[in-house]
Amino acid sequence: MDISFKNTKLEKEFNEGKRLEKVHGSLRAKKVRLRMAEFRAAVCLYDFWPPKSGNSRCHELKQGERKGQLSVDLDHPYRLIFIPNHSPVPQKTDKGLDWKQVTAIQIIGIEDTHD
Fold first, then answer.
1. Number of other residues whose CB lies within 10 A of the CB of residue 73
2. pTM, whole model, 2 decimals?
3. What's the confidence (pLDDT) of residue 115?
């Protein structure tokens, strides 16, 4: 899958040496690297369709300002938040996200979505 970032600050955080550990601690940094490796190995987002998502528990967020975003588990309660990076976003005939057509994502952050 193709991976981009919301901004250069976030891209540097994810890709430069020990920056992830400094910002998020070693446990979360390890989980982030694992999820990023899974994304890089995937052909499309459908590779994360439940129940194939395993421990990452990939799912769509549907409430409020989070609508259209997706997330995967890191260390509880934190999740890696991303969006499909397509214009227009691939949709099925019922207007739901077509996970099989999503081949590019944009990482938008690490957050506790339960706040």
1. 18
2. 0.93
3. 67
